[in-house]
Amino acid sequence: MAYNPLALAMDAQAETVEAMAEATERTARAPERMVDIETVEVGTTPAEVVYTENKLELLHYESRTEEQNNVPILVVYALINRPYILDLQPDRSVVRHLLDEGHDVYLIDWNEPSRLDQHLTLSDYIDRYIDNCVDVVRERSGQDSINVLGYCMGGSMSAAYSALYPEKVNALGLMAAGLCFDDTGGVLERWGSEGNYDPRALVDAFGNAPADLLDSGFALMDPVQNYVSKYATLYDNFEDDDFVENFARMERWIGDGIDVAGEAYAEFLEKFYQENALYRNELEIGGRAVDVEEIQMPVLQILGEYDHLIPTEASRPFNEVVGSDDVRTIEHSTGHIGLSVSSSSHEHVWPEVADWYHDVSDPDEDGDPGGDQTAEETAEGGPVDVETIAGIGPTYADRLREAGIETTAELAERDVPELADVTGAGNSRVEDWLDELA
Question: What are the contacts of 378-384 at 24+ separation with CB within 8 A?
């Protein structure tokens, strides 16, 4: 074919005109999309405020199942940002997932401190606020001890609380929690190191740690993504309603930061980050030693492989210093926020977490959830349901039954890859099921 520069130029011009027309059309929709972003709903799972103290509200979520686990879960969120990241949208809600799996869920919403709250200490939050909420949940549920799930800074405080009040905590879940800062905490640890940063200077200047300042710091950890790439991606997906809604929910949460009480902020930076006092077992809260060896209840760490805020090595070493001999770790290929909102986390992580809370809430003397009924069935030679295996809770059991695997005998006939594919569980977890049958 002969080279025709005029034809090529005309084709290029036509493509340019088409691109400009498309860009004009997208831009014309910008006002409409901005309305969508500003009015999108978040945190829609129904809940009742059952306790208040100062700004704090304790939420109790409505049950979504006929039966619930007798031991409730209290979710302790960070003092930074709003907790509705755990209930961002119905199909990606940690709260709703736990409810759908038969758990009774409470959550602490700290709300924003006022100028008068700048002198609140970590002891105020741990010894007073968290402890009072735990007592309310214990009283309402009739349980001597309850389950706790702490996220990020809330996980750090939950670990300290569990060491101070072990008799009140049945099981401790730690989600992307900062627990060990010995050159393991990534960029935040370097920025917040004693040689680079004095949190007292910020508190002296502002009283409380300003949300805008904190948000800017987090954004600067990945400036290209946070200030350029994500908006370019939004522009490219202006016609995708689901994408725009998901983007809007995340942007609303990111922009909905709250100040942090000044003294608690400074104390947390100094003790947890700069001194690494929790991991070193040197932490004091309200004049009391926080002995991590007192954490003897079951512990579950939930980690994001690509978490740039709390890298896995800022959490995992804590498993070696607690007093518990029942410690598990779930690590998933996502980031800090992805643990809450990614579709893969809700497919693979939260069913396992929900099952773990069932397992540690109703064990028999041997640690298996089946109790005497399982022993009786085995003695009679009858079929034994797959849910009697430790680690197979309602979610995994339902998936197995859908695949025609209802009894332990049928389970033993299948291999690891097939069972992992059917249930969505990891190979190592499936191997544990089969080892129990051996």
Answer: 383/407, 383/408, 383/409, 384/408, 384/409
User: Quick one: which H or E segment has residue 288?
Assistant: strand 288-289
Q: How far is the C-alpha of 95 from the C-alpha of 93, rounded, in Å?
A: 5
Q: Which residue has the tokens 């029942």?
A: 326
Residue 392: closest CA among 356, 418, 341: 356
Q: What is the pLDDT of residues 309-335, one digit of tens each?
A: 899 999 999 999 999 999 999 999 999
Report, as residue numbers or ranges, the catalytic residues: 152, 307, 336
The predicted-structure confidence for 12-31, as pLDDT tens digits, reads as follows 666 665 555 555 555 555 55
How far apart CA 87 and CA 64 sit, in angstroms, is: 14
Closest by Cα among 357, 380, 381 to 369: 357
Asked if 56 and 109 touch (Cβ cutoff 8 Å), the reply is: yes
Confidence grade of residue 36 (pLDDT, cut at 50, 70, 90): low
Using a 10 angstrom Cβ sphere, with 0-12 exposed, 13-18 middle and 19 or more buried, the burial of residue 8 is exposed
> pLDDT value at position 426?
67
Residues 160 and 285: beta-carbon distance below 8 Å: yes
State how far the Cα of 416 lies from the Cα of 296, in Å rounded to an integer: 32
What one-letter code names the amino acid at 418?
E
Q: Tell me the residue type at 299.
A: V
Q: What is the pLDDT of residue 133?
A: 98
Element (H, E) at 73: strand 73-76
**Which residue(s) pair with 27 in the sheet?**
none
The sign of the torsion formed by the CA atoms of 180, 154, 262, 335 equals positive
- The whole model's pTM is what? 0.76
Q: What are phi and psi of 221, to 5 degrees?
A: -70, -25
Q: H helices within 29-78, ranges in order?
A: 30-39
The per-residue DSSP string of 234-250 comes to HHHTTT-HHHHHHHHHH
The pLDDT, as a whole number, for residue 16 is: 62
Strands 169-175 and 73-76: unpaired
What does 237-287 look like in DSSP terms, one character per residue? TTT-HHHHHHHHHHHHHHT----B-HHHHHHHIIIIIIS-TTTTT--EETT
Tokens of 270: 């100094």
